[in-house]
Design a protein that fits this description.
There is one protein chain. The chain is mainly alpha-helical.
């Protein structure tokens, strides 16, 4: 088959994996609902210049991903799948890019196995079916790194690097316009380390670097100019301040130990992480012509892992750019086995078994515990009042939630056990088996988990906001469910606001508040009868609060208060 035919096959496979079921599970709070609500407000107001939440400037994210969501919202209407479609398309582009790079490296089979690894590795598969920013963000960063690699090859290929410099700048600009300036840091570190490794400093200290700068300014500068004209410099001060808060640690339960991302990648990037381990520490290559590319992949992995291990705030997808080198080296290992030039190391076998056992344990434990009618007695001392309230009213999970565990036992473990003692076995079927497990988790386990975690809040919000002239806000916790599920309009967010001591009132010159201090507002005295607050069951109402509010309803872990 020629290259075009292989791309068609890969695209069809990616379409079958990434597109079905995008609207099956409601959007998750915070991130998915945050971006979806911003896209909804952008579409509703027609304001494309900056991101909004509550019809006020939202300082935390640039607009590119929201533009994509808003575009598909205008195209298909307000449906859950619309907000996840950009990532599904990014997944299709990503796996085709993997094959394209393999083809460029003169190893077409390597490209096929890399595309296979990227498609069927556990976490990438699930995230390409999500509505968060990172898959698109990572794709743009990786495209800029790929073109930096092409710059390193221009001399040996006797070609001019100018176009690649421009594309480096263009793609890193698009990455910055997607999530922020951390894109510049990651690309800069990778480029500097590779340049030092090669000793070719003319790649950096050259007038051609201004071509990359021009490509970056072309996309970022246009947006910055428009935002500056509409909001002034305050927007950028708040945006940079927020990025610094992320580095320092913003939310206690996001402040994880330094090894957090190592554990996340080992388990959630299964089986690629286990297969890639030997290549992450290797120096020198037996495969002629791949030395610089492998050095670049290792550099990318260690730069991302170290940077986000240093950063105090740690969330699962912060290290997701590591998926590119991990799936590449897993695909490369499969390529070596396929061509009878490699063997399976004992560390790969052991890590595969341990991580598979960990995933299996979670897939069995969750359905068993939440399949019960009531909360197990042994767990009560370990649960706070909010968790107890959340679980107390839950619908027991059905038998179908055990399907992912059954798929793991039937499709993954036979290969692991059978081949644990063998020196050489083909990992290709292992990827397909893990992909089937990930898909079954998406279709059968994730909806039950979403219902447990969010159904009560969603129901509460929809119940409280369906009355005309009803003014509702969450207090003591941050949630975007109120805006998205309440389908709020700009007119509902206008008017005079009280400034009680427990209220963080709106102010034109204040940036969007920190996440631990969610803003709350309640309408003035003319609307007391329609002013409601939603709190978690862990919220302690003091005397001053009860003087102003009556408890009128409770749904599981959430209380509803009415203004006196």
């Amino acid at each position: 088959m020629n290259k075009a035919q292989v791309h068609i096959i890969i695209t069809v496979l990616a379409l079958l994996v990434f597109l079905p079921g995008l609207g099956l599970t409601p959007l998750f709070d915070w991130d998915e609902l945050n971006f979806a609500e911003s896209a909804r407000e952008m579409h509703l107001t027609g304001n494309l210049y900056y991101v909004q939440v509550g019809f006020e400037p939202f300082w935390e994210k640039p607009p590119l991903f929201i533009w994509l969501q808003s575009f598909f919202l205008a195209l298909f209407g307000d449906h859950t799948f619309v907000y996840r479609l950009p990532n599904a398309l990014a997944g299709i582009v990503t796996v085709n890019l993997a094959y394209h790079i393999g083809y460029y490296l003169a190893r077409r089979t390597l490209g096929v196995f890399w595309a296979l690894a990227m498609t069927f590795t556990f976490a990438p598969l699930l995230y390409f079916k999500s509505g968060i920013i990172d898959p698109v963000f990572n794709l743009f960063i990786f495209l800029s790194i790929w073109h930096w690699y092409r710059i390193t090859r221009c001399e040996s290929e006797n070609s001019r690097p100018h176009w690649h410099y421009f594309l480096v700048g263009l793609f890193i600009g698009l990455a910055a316009l997607t999530k922020g300036q951390v894109a510049f840091l990651l690309l800069g570190l990778v480029a500097l380390i590779i340049t030092a490794y090669r000793g070719q400093w003319q790649d950096v200290f050259s007038t051609r670097i201004f071509i990359a700068l021009m490509g970056c300014v072309l996309v970022v500068g246009t947006w910055v100019l428009q935002v500056y004209n509409h909001l002034g410099p305050h927007f950028f001060d708040a945006f940079i301040s927020y990025q610094l808060e992320l580095v320092q640690g913003q939310i206690p339960w996001h402040n994880q130990p330094w090894f957090y991302h190592i554990v996340v990648l080992l388990f959630l990037c299964s089986p690629s992480a286990a297969l890639a381990i030997p290549y992450l520490f290797q120096r020198g290559e037996d495969d002629f012509g791949l030395e610089i590319w492998h050095a670049m992949m290792r550099t990318l992995f260690w730069v991302v892992l170290i940077v986000f291990s240093i950063v105090t705030t740690k969330i699962i997808h912060y290290s997701s750019l590591c998926w590119f080198p991990l799936t590449y080296f897993a695909g490369y290992h499969t390529y070596l086995i396929h061509t009878n030039r490699g063997h399976n190391h004992w560390i790969q076998k052991l890590t595969l078994l341990v991580t598979a056992l960990g995933l299996l344990s979670v897939m069995i434990l969750l359905p068993v515990v939440f399949g019960l009618e009531s909360t197990p007695e042994w767990s009560l001392p370990y649960l706070d009042s909010f968790a107890k309230g959340l679980i107390a009213e839950h619908q027991p999970w059905g038998f179908v939630t055990l399907i992912p565990a059954m798929m793991m036992l039937l499709l993954v473990f036979p290969w692991l056990i059978k081949n644990f003692l063998q020196t050489q076995w083909h990992p290709g079927k292992l990827f397909i088996g893990m992909g089937a497990v990930a898909l079954s988790a998406y279709f059968f386990l994730l909806p039950a988990a979403e219902s447990l975690l969010q159904n009560e809040l969603t129901t509460t919000v929809q119940t409280q906001t369906n009355q005309p002239a009803q003014y509702v806000e969450t207090h003591g916790f941050r949630s975007y469910a109120l805006y998205y599920h309440g389908k709020l309009k700009p007119a509902q967010m206008q008017g005079p606001w009280l400034t009680d001591t427990f209220v963080i009132h709106r102010s034109q010159n204040n940036p969007y508040p920190k996440q631990e201090a969610k803003r709350v507002w309640i309408k003035d005295a003319n609307h007391h009868q329609n002013a409601r607050l939603i709190t978690k069951s862990t919220f302690v109402a003091d005397r001053y609060f009860r003087y102003q509010f009556n408890l009128i309803d409770s749904q599981g872990a959430y209380f509803v208060w009415q203004r006196r």
